Amino acid sequence: MGTLKGPAENRTLVLLMTCNKLRKKSKLLCLFKILGLWYTLIPMSKLDLVYLDHNATTPVAPEILASLSSYAQAWGNPSSIHAGGRDPKQMLRETRRDLAAHLNCSPLELIFTSGGSESNNTVLRALWSKLGSQRNQFICSTVEHPSLMKAMEWLAEQGAQVDFVPVDRKGQLDLETYRSLLSEKTALVSIMTANNETGTLFPIRELAEMAHAVGALFHTDAVQMLGKLPLDLKALNVDYASFSAHKVYSLKGTGALYVKKNAPYESLIRGGGQERHRRGGTENTLGIAAFGEAIRLLSGLSMEASRLRELRDYFEARVLEEIPESSVTAFETERLPGTSSLILAGVDGETMLMSLDLKGFAVSTGAACSSGNPEPSPVLLAIGLSRGEAQNSLRVSFGRENTREQVDAFVEALKSVVIRLRQISKETEGVCRA
Ligand SMILES: Cc1ncc(COP(=O)(O)O)c(C=O)c1O
Q1: What is the mean pLDDT of residues 106-112?
Q2: Is there a contact between 257 and 117 (Cβ–Cβ < 8 Å)?
Q3: In ligand 1, which atom is closest to the CA atom of 244?
Q4: How many angstroms does the Cα of residue 145 sit away from the middle of ligand 1?
Q5: Listed range (28-32, 160-164, 236-240, 375-379) with the worst mean pLDDT
Q6: Quick one: the chain helix, strand, coil %, rounded to 5?
Q7: 138 and 162 Cβ atoms separated by less than 8 Å
Q8: pTM for the whole structure
Q9: What spacing in Å lies between the alpha carbon of 431 and ligand 1's midpoint?
Q10: Is residue 192 within 6 Å of ligand 1 at its C-beta?
Q11: How is 49-88 classified by DSSP, letter by letter?
Q12: Ligand 1 pocket: which of 119, 244, 284, 339 to mutate (most atoms <8 Å of CB)?
């Protein structure tokens, strides 16, 4: 594991903390870049990494890795009528069949896309184009993924009325506000099945029923739900749903969109007649074949969900008992089994993340640090966490390969990082005041 010990570790932590503090105060992106450059020079072994960031992406399943070259050998164009098109066409057919069986829908109701972002954008733009002139109101929650929020922003620029349903710090949607917003003007409601940062689940069936009662359509971003808990689209009674393959131990750049039979629809990408004219572009046969394999590997889903729930509960119990001034966001709310969003008072999330990375553990902050943005997570702020709490947040998301031993090792590492960072913080505050 890439560990640093003693004074060297202390110096590293002080440097990390100082750089992160300065960056937040001055908001100078160049400082972050210097920090980033220096930080990436520290040698780390990827092989020893304990990966605890499964909501960001998942490792590719070994079964899929082993099959990739055979999928790639079916390199023909699935639209070709000659023999070269048969194998790739069959691969698409099998994935569509197995994904449909897993979701309880018809294979014809599934369209392959490049992932969750494309699926989300497609639905919103399609509904604006098809219904915008009769019904111009679009509703979503305040905690949606940026791919949905940005598409909503675009709709507002086009003249749509976009309304947001608040979510409280328990992760619960304000049903009264939702009810009051729905009207005969509502074209579409889009509310995610499970939140990527806190893991909280929304009552999709009930929300869809309320939308349908005023004649509106309902879309759910089910990217985080797929592969973590069972999903039954018919029971949920939604009109559209988005999925992404890289969250289920498969490849990036592949996803799907469910469009209920006869629901209004328009292709976002115009091109050839692929996907029954519903999404132009030669299909990503390798990604789609791998996606099918990933779906077939979900057969023991309920057992794995219980295992992850136990692992997560064990982890949270240890953190709450052994790390003072720690809390779990939306602790009492029903959440995805492997997701834990922690607040560790007084410790900067990014510094914590980098220190844990140096010790060989991969987690994420609530902060949108990937884009070099020093602002805390909009989702955590939206549910009512203070800026300080959001900046002290850390997201841990467990997956298939994680064990109790890894959780134990992680708790020890987290404890030592939090204690040390709090200590350094006190000492440097003293120096600043002197
Ligand atoms: C809830 C949610 N929706 C959409 C996406 C985007 O999916 P993709 O990366 O396949 O575009 C993500 C990915 O993080 C997500 O968590």
Answers
A1: 98
A2: no
A3: 10
A4: 7
A5: 28-32
A6: 50, 15, 35
A7: yes
A8: 0.91
A9: 43
A10: yes
A11: -EE-BTTT--PPPHHHHHHHHHHHH--S-TT-SSGGGHHH
A12: 244
CA Rg value for the chain: 23
State the CB neighbour count (10 A cutoff) for residue 412: 13
Instruction: State the pLDDT at residue 106.
Output: 98
Apex 353 CA angle, 347 and 354, nearest 5: 110
Judge if the beta carbon of residue 196 lies within 6 A of ligand 1. Answer: yes
CATH entry, 62-299, from 3.90.550.10, 3.40.640.10, 3.40.1000.10, 3.40.50.300: 3.40.640.10
The answer to whether residue 140 is catalytic is no
**What are the beta bridge partners of residue 343?**
327, 393
CATH topology of domain 6-60+300-433: Aspartate Aminotransferase, domain 1 (3.90.1150)
Model pLDDT for residues 254-276, shown as the tens digit of each residue: 999 999 999 999 999 999 999 99
- Mean pLDDT on 38-50: 64
Which ligand 1 atom lies nearest to the CA of residue 195? 1
Q: What is the pLDDT of residue 20?
A: 60
Q: Are strands 393-397 and 364-365 parallel, antiparallel or unpaired?
A: antiparallel
Per residue in 305-335, pLDDT (tens digit) is 999 999 999 999 999 999 999 999 999 999 9
Q: Please pick, among 19, 30, 369, 432, the residue that the annotation labels catalytic.
A: 369
Q: Which of 147, 225, 254 to mutate to test the pocket of ligand 1 (most atoms within 8 A of CB)?
A: 147
Give the Å distance between the CA of 292 and the centre of ligand 1.
Answer: 18
Ligand 1 center to 397 CA (angstroms): 15
Burial of 332: CB neighbours in 10 Å, binned 0-12, 13-18, 19+:
exposed
Residue scoring higher pLDDT (375 or 134):
134
Domain borders along the chain are: 6-60+300-433, 62-299
Band of residue 112 on the pLDDT scale cut at 50, 70, 90: very high
Both structure tokens of 298:
């979900």
pLDDT for res 1? 37
Q: Is 238 in the pocket of ligand 1 (CB under 6 A)?
A: no
Query: Are the beta carbons of 171 and 198 closer than 8 angstroms?
Result: yes
- pLDDT tens digits for range 358-385: 999 999 996 444 445 668 999 999 999 9
Q: What would the mean pLDDT of 63-74 be, rounded to a whole number? A: 97
